[in-house]
Amino acid sequence: MKNNIIFLVFIVVVVGFLFSISGRKYPQIPADASHEGVTEVSACLKCHGPEGVSPRKPSHPPKDDCLKCHKKKRVLPSK
Ligand code: HEC
Ligand code: HEC
Question: Of the ranges 16-20, 55-59, 65-69, which one carries the lowest mean pLDDT score?
Answer without folding.
Answer: 16-20
